[in-house]
Prior knowledge:
Layout: E1 5-10, H1 31-49, E2 54-57, H2 69-85, E3 89-92, H3 108-114, E4 118-121, E5 127-129, E6 138-143, H4 145-148, E7 163-169, E8 200-204, E9 210-211, E10 216-218, E11 235-241, E12 248-254, E13 260-262, E14 266-267, H5 273-287, E15 293-296, E16 298-299, H6 303-316, E17 323-326, H7 332-337, H8 349-359, H9 367-389
Parallel strand pairs: 1-2, 2-3, 3-4, 6-7, 7-8, 8-10, 13-15, 14-16, 15-17
Antiparallel strand pairs: 1-11, 5-6, 9-10, 11-12
Helix pairs in contact: 1-2, 5-6, 8-9
Amino acid sequence: MSNVVRLAHFSDTHLGYRATARFDSETGRNQRTVDVDHAFTRTIDDIIRRQVDGVIHSGDVFHHSRPTWQSLRHFIRQMRRLEVAGIPTLVIAGNHDTPRVRTGGSAFSVLELALPAIRFVTEFADDHDQDTFAALNMHVQAIPHGALTNPDPVFTGVAEGKRNVLVTHGAVPGVLPVGLFTEPGEQLLDGRLLDPDFDYIALGDIHQAQQVSPKGWYAGSTERFGWGDVTAVPGYNLVTMAGPGEDVTVAHIPLPARPMIALRPVYGDGKQARDLADAVIDQLKVIDDQSAMTRVEFRNVDRPMRREAQSLLKREAGAFAWLLDIAPERLAFIAESGAALADDSTLDLHALFAEFVASRRATYPNEAFAALLLDRGGRALTDAMIAEENPTPEDDAVS
Length: 399
C-alpha cells in the first residue's frame, strides 16, 4: 500500500433543484435542473480522471427528500461509474435529503440496493466505518444530518494506527456571514465535532469551499443555487493524506458552472424607466456572457417606474444574458426596525422572515413564542417555496 492516499470530497450536489421558468430545448426539463445534473457528471468525470483512492459525499445529494425519478436515475448512473472504477465511496445524508418524519422512509433505502458497492449512512445514527476504506487503512466516522437532530449529542472517536476521517453535514458557528440566516432544518454543529484528532473533517452544508478549523474543510457545492452562492466557486476538494496523524494537503478543484453575477444596484434619483433599463443593459454589455444568470436591485425607485423598467428589461436583456433577475423590493419593516442585513446579493426570503420576527419580538409573550414562530413559520415558508419550485414532484419535465 502506498503511503499516500488521495480522497475526493464533494458535497451539496442538490440533484433535482429547480429555478426560473426556463427549459432545456433538448429534454424539455427545467434548465437549472439540467445544469445541476451536468455539474454532477463533471464532478464524477474529474474524480475518475484523477484516479483517486476514495470518495466521500458529505450530504445534500438531492434537493428534496423525495427526489424525482430523473434525479434518482442520474445519481445511480453516475455513482455506478465509481463502482465500476473500483473506487470505495461513502455518502451521508444532509438536511435536504432527510425526511422530516422518521418513519417515512428514505430514497436511500432503495439506492443502497441499486448501488451495493457504495456505502450509505443516511438514517438517525452515526456510524464508525472501518470496512469501506479498509485497503486505505482508514477509519471514517460518518454523522448524517439525522444523527445531529437527536436529543443526545454525538461523540467523536478515532481509531489508533489508522487514518481518521470524520464526515458530517451542518453549519459551523461563525461561518455564515452576519445577517445571513440558516434555513429551517439546518443544524449548527457542536464545536466538539471539529475534533483535531481526526486527520481530515469533511463538511457539507455551506456552499463556499473553505477551511473552518485546523482539520475541518467545506468542499462547497458543485453548482451555484440561490443568490447567496454568488461568490461560490463550484467544485470539490482533493485531499492528499500521508500516514496516520500526519498533515494533509487540501486543494479545491474548481469546475465549470453557469456564471452567477450580481450587478451594481441602480438608483432612481429622478431617472425615467428608460434610463434605469439602460443603466442595467450597460452593465450586461460589459459581462458579454449570454449564459450568465444576473441580478440587479433598484433603489429609490417607485413601484410604477420599477414595473416599467422591468418590462423594458424583460424584452431586451435576453440579448446579453441568459437570465436577468430583478431583486425583490426591500421591505419597509426592515428599514423601520434598523436591523442589520446581509449583503444585498445574499438577501433571501428566510432572512427577511427572520428579520420580521426579530423586529416584533417585543410584542411576543416570551422568547419561547418567538422561537416557535420562527421555526414553524420558516418551515411553512420552505414548504411554500418547494411547492412553487415543484408543481409536479414526480416529474421535472414540462407538463
